[in-house]
Specification:
Aminopeptidase, 6-stranded mixed sheet, alpha+beta, 31% strand, globular, 6 strands
């Protein structure tokens, strides 16, 4: 609710809740979902919830799942905590649950989401044209993935980037995440 407008909701299926009560109802809907597992991103020092992300389209038989429904507050965006939250979900999927495929899908027009997927190490697979209809328009969906074979070097890059030695006394990164992938 910290964002000044609803631009972060443009590419989501839901509309931004207008009032705190509506937002609470939205969060209750996420918590009760049996279609996706929603996670809250909590800032470690303040213990404030600053975002949500979901593991969805979970297919244990084929060993694949998708990360999506990502909403980050302005205070979380472009921070090491945001990156760490994505790393922790990947680690859960691959290292703890043993999945073989981790997907990221977004509206093909959503340039920030596409850039994030590439920054996190996802491989672009293509665009599914006229994939879904939402908010009154047809959406082309850009598909990205990381497979279990690709995960070890992606994991190593995240771990090297997240190492405290990669940050100066002001919390600024010394090297970009992409630099650790070579």
């Amino acid at each position: 609710m910290e964002a000044p407008d609803d631009r972060d909701w443009t590419y989501l299926f839901d509309e931004r809740p207008e009032r705190k009560e509506d937002f609470d109802s939205y969060l209750e809907k996420l918590a009760s979902s049996d279609d996706a597992l929603h996670f809250t991103v909590v800032e470690s020092h303040s213990k404030k919830a600053l975002g949500t992300a979901a593991l969805m389209r979970i297919d244990p038989a084929h060993g694949s799942l998708e990360v999506g429904s990502i909403i980050f507050s302005p205070r979380l965006k472009r921070t090491s905590a945001a990156t760490e939250s994505m790393y922790l979900l990947m680690r859960l999927a691959f290292d703890e649950l043993g999945y073989r495929r981790y997907e990221w899908k977004c509206d093909s027009l959503n340039a920030p989401s596409r850039a994030a997927a590439e920054r996190y190490g996802f491989a672009f697979e293509g665009v599914f044209r006229n994939a879904v209809v939402y908010k009154g328009r047809s959406r082309d969906t850009a598909w990205y993935s990381i497979t279990n074979r690709e995960w070890p070097p992606v994991r190593s890059a995240f771990e090297a980037w997240l190492d405290p030695a990669n940050f100066d006394e002001h919390g600024c990164q010394r090297r970009r995440l992409q630099d650790f992938r070579g």
